[in-house]
Amino acid sequence: MKIDFYKEKVERIIALCKNEIEAGGRIVVTGHDMPDNDSIISSVMLRYLLAKLGVESVIKFGTRPDGVTLRDQTELDNLGGITFDGFDKDDRLLLVDHHVCFYKNRVIGCVDHHVTPPEANFDFNLVVKASSCGRVIYDMAVAAGVADDYLERLAVISVYLDTQSCQSLKFDKSDLTWLADGVERLGIDEKRIIKMGFCICDIDDGAEVLSGYGLKRYPFGDKIGASTCVQIDIEKEAEWQGVIDEIVAILVKRMNAEGVFLWAFVVNKPEIARSDIYFIRPDGSIEIVKLDRVASRSRDVIPYVKREAEK
User: Fold this and answer.
1) Cys-Cys with 52: which of 146, 173, 235, 252 at CB 3.0–4.6 Å?
2) Per-residue pLDDT, 75
3) Are both 133 and 180 inside the same structural domain?
4) Do residues 120 and 83 share a domain?
5) Which domain holds residue 269?
6) Of 167, 194, 221, which residue sits at a domain end?
């Protein structure tokens, strides 16, 4: 970890936040739409870090998380004080776990671990490759001298929950020793966290609800791409196929209604480390890419969408 680099970044974000507060703004930490566990956990971590350094902030989201994330949140402790009702005009946003904002509020800056286009262009930008956004914020805390067991525990959990329990390509294998030490020293129930990290969806939620899980949008010029994803129970794979066909039909209608030129629907099978990606077009045509590993949207989806947008 580059201590000086992160220390400089922390000093910069604190200065910017204090300037916004003096100008009458409210600092709001927010993750991406339909936030996943890493988005929520890293928001909590950044709020905690800012408070340690004398900046008060609140956490707000523009949309609610999906059912899997809500289910997992009941398993996590001390993540309160979060609202999902949008923003007020005086809110000044700090983005975590994403660096593209579709809201009209002023954005102070971003902390993200997805080094993907388009490039972040705010007053403060910290976008570095890492296993999770929580991992990035923990490194910020270490550099600022305010890291503690609470933050490290959340960082460790965020890595498991954002990498399909360390199976995703975005998992940084150099984190293995740190994770093992943290699990043992902090008394984390690794079996429970691994199961949570698989994020298996409930087939009974139905195709309409499942079609929107994990929504992300990708603006490239005048074209907008999108993706959603589900994690399926391999024992119910045959049942899931019928639901997946329904989901594809729903997404075709949604694409045409919303002007999305390409939609990637990712079907992860974390128990066997496999994935299928359905690249769907508004005319209903589909290209299915089968992977012998768990898909990474930053590596398997975004580059594909970008290439298609530039044609």
Assistant:
1) 146
2) 53
3) yes
4) yes
5) 203-309
6) 194
Same domain, yes or no: 13 and 98? yes
Residues 185 and 208 in one domain: no
Q: Please state the three-class secondary structure of the chain as a single string.
A: CCHHHHHHHHHHHHHHHHHHHHCCCEEEEECCCCCCHHHHHHHHHHHHHHHHCCCCCEEECCCCCCHHHHHHHCCCCCCCCEECCCCCCCEEEEEECCCCCCCCCCEEEEEECCCCCCCCCCCEEEECCCCCHHHHHHHHHHHHCCCCHHHHHHHHHHHHHHCCCCCCCCCCHHHHHHHHHHHHHCCCCHHHHHHHHHCCCCHHHCHHHHCCCCCEEEEECCEEEEEEEEECCHHHHHHHHHHHHHHHHHHHHHHHHHCEEEEEEEEEECCCCEEEEEEECCCCCEEEEEECCCCCHHHHHHHHHHHHHCC
pLDDT at 169: 87
Task: Give the number of domains in the chain.
Answer: 2
Residues 112 and 228 in one domain: no
Residue 151 CA to residue 52 CA, distance in Å, equals 11
pLDDT value for 120: 87
Torsions phi, psi of 286, nearest 5?
Answer: -135, 135
238-243's contacts with Cβ under 8 Å and 24+ in sequence apart are 239/203, 240/203, 240/267, 243/203, 243/206, 243/207, 243/210
Mean pLDDT by 10 residues, the chain (311 residues): 92 97 96 90 96 97 82 61 91 95 92 88 95 97 97 96 90 96 95 90 95 93 95 95 97 98 97 96 98 92 96 89
pLDDT at 65: 85
Distance (Å, rounded) from C-alpha 10 to C-alpha 28?
16
Instruction: Report the CATH number that the domain containing residue 218 is assigned in CATH.
Output: 3.10.310.20
Give residue 77's pLDDT. Answer: 55
